[in-house]
Amino acid sequence: MIVELTLTMVKNFAGEWVSATPIPGSLICNIGDMLKILSNGVYESRIHRVINNSPRYRVCVALFYEGNFDAEVKPLDIFKDKYPGNEISQDSNRVVYGEYLVNKLHKTFAILDGTQLI
Predict the structure, then answer these.
(1) Rounded to an integer, what distance in angstroms lies between the CA atom of residue 96 and that of residue 34?
(2) Domain positions in the chain
(3) Model confidence at 99, in pLDDT bands (50, 70, 90)?
């Protein structure tokens, strides 16, 4: 008997790794930070990882779509109207894509080999 297991995990708000067991035949779509902003926090961007304990290969298709660096990203009206309780404030929920991306890269890769990211 071969036990095949691919375990998908997400980091919860307490910083703990929890299992995200997929429904058979389903597709897992991890969203990014921009969709979180566009959805006014309805859809959450979570840190995730996959542990493949299966002897079979795992297929992962990563797709990144980048907006213009000077594009303002803010909650869509449909989410502001339908889910007003998720709204932090319109000003704090707006970002300029390029500034956000550069700041995120600096936070993520700030210390590589003891030097700062330039």
Answers:
(1) 10
(2) 6-108
(3) very high
